[in-house]
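New to this. Explain the following:
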Amino acid sequence: MKAHQTIRALALASAAWGGLATLPAWAQDSAPQASAADDDSAAIVVTARRREETLVSVPIAVSAFSGEALERGGAIDISDLANVTPNTTLEASRGTNSTLTAFIRGVGQQDPVSGFEQGVGIYLDDVYLNRPQGALLDIYDVERIEVLRGPQGTLYGRNTIGGAVKYVTRMLPQDFSLKLKGTFGSYDQADGIISASAPIGDLVRVGGAVARLSRGGFGKNLTTGEDNYNKDIWAGRATFEMGGYGEPVLVRITGDYTKDKSNPRGGHRLIPGQASGAPVLNNVFDTRGGLVDPRQEVKSYGLSMNVSAELNDMFTLKSISAWRKDDSASPIDFDALPAVDVDVPAFYRNEQLSQEVQLQVDAGPLKGMIGFYYLDARADTQFDTRIFTTLAGLTAFTQANVDTETYAIFGDFTYDFSPQFSVSAGGRYTWDERHAEILRQSYLGGGSPVFDGAGIPFGAPSTNFRGSAQYKKFTPRFSVSYKPTQDHNIYASYSKGFKGGGFDPRGVGTNAPDLNGDGIRQDSEVASFLSFRPEQVDSYEVGYKGNLMDGALYVAIAGFYADYKDVQIPGSVACTVSVGGVATPSFCGVVSNAGKARFKGLEFESNARLGRDMLAGGDRLNLQTAIGYIDAEYREYIANIASVPTDVAQYRRVQNTPKWTASGTLSYTVPVGDGSLYAGSTLSWRSKTYQFEIPNPYIDQKGYALWDASLVYTAPDDRWTIGVHGKNLLDKEYKTSGYTFVAANPVTGAIINNAAGYPTPSLGREGTLTAFYGNPRQVFVTGSVKF
């Protein structure tokens, strides 16, 4: 049996289904982000280095959010965290509610098709989610969420080149527990969550949660009559636990399931239809898209098992095994008009099996771990690109199956030379193997049969490719910490991040250049044309964390500098392909390793107790702030313009990375009777954001501010709560993403207008320039009761 087959069999035999070991209970005063203020921050525990440490002592820029604080602030899904985390973007990807776009410190990825990997790792109970579909996690039954900024490749492995987001669910309590929570609000929002658990004997506990999350649309699809930007989700989680709570062994088995039947999110056209004359709609949440097949649906589910065994006082063995699967059907109407101008129905099917083993060491001044990680993942994408306004209805069907097999060994140790001075060193060696099968076939007169179309195959496939590639990389990490006292930490670190290469799933093999000039397109030439190299980043960071004024003020400051090389820029443009010997407008991938980028910036986080016992005994006034600044620029950006490599760095920008992010949360908590009343208000601001590397005045978003507020009463012993929450209270309209297929100067990116003064279509006849928007003002009431 081959080595990879042996590992896969062992992973399956280990029951392969993931969770999290014992987690300490911790809480936070006032604002959504856990920090010191009224609590001693030495008591706030995170697992940023895969072991329990205090927030102050860990030499990593990390923001931690407790489940209680997220609930008190009315958080809906993990994208809410971006408003109060420096240099972080988390948002829904264009046409769905469930696919995540994530960027941290300038590094990320927004293209969801197979072959392209995330730049920010998303972890559900320590299980890495290999694909972005289904990764925009709703917040329920959560213990805490951690956002780690900067490369985390040593301990977290593949594709954490920008950072990591860790979603940690609650451990089951030892006593019977039942909690009911309901939410009602604007746009017919109606959410219900039931969480329950019960002990079976002294060592075994079972429990779970069921969530029904629904909301009407913010707008309408004027063609189909359906709500646009609605929400229709069923989700559940079941957990079996044995041991823990002082026992040397903890076994935690978890299964989760989410079904999202929300309508497709239709884009808002920013220019009139250039052929139909369709006007721009008044409501940015309205659309006219006519594509209804396939019916939008996203299903994601998984099983995981986490086993933690304390072998003795020095060694703990952990095993994290998981299997996950998700299936998505999405009708994406790029042009947002009833006619088929640029329509893309798509299927995404992903599956993964992973196994991680850790041996943790706690030997006095020496702490750390060694480990092994294995991932076997499949990502299959099928989509039509329908341009029915040319050549009697042209469809370019693409099927891209990309399989990934990854092995890694890693280790990370900290040695305390004294109570004040410690040094950490770690490294990870990764073997990545990618297998790709890419087929691109043209059809005339209708769509492909995969989407029940009546199109007729026309010509030979423009891409019929099978290939594989291997990538190997060592990613080290070093840090030094100086702690004058337990409440202060000054640190410096270096880390390397790595993201594997691959093959462009939208690439057109017939466009591959004849590199050797023999007149024959070799398989190696097609492979070279479709492939892109791994990218890597070298990151340097210095920081300070501390509790000041007897715990009344917590401060975290970090400065960072990063060299980003071989930056992968996936994309698609209008192009010309040969269909049956006829040069035909179509839709092609243009993936490249653009070159080099440089990031440098500062981050500041604080939580300050401004007052105590002011108007009533036991009251508190807190101010929490989070400020991020990043100077992100391309040092080199090589574009192939008229077959000539050209450096266009001065005309390109780093996408989804505003120069400034800032937030402030002012909160007041006061005893009322035997309970307490919380009042909090958050103002967040982001400077101008470029949606793509080429600036676009239509879809780029200028700086904007959002204002949220909450008022929550909590009864004695937390038996019940009632709260009122407002999101985006000033009803700010702001763009989060978009599609653009209009003519532009290939060097500067300046849009080329037609005689009517509007952008010239480059694909289809109408001009595809559509935008998607963040949520408008929402007001909702939440109530919960515990038994």
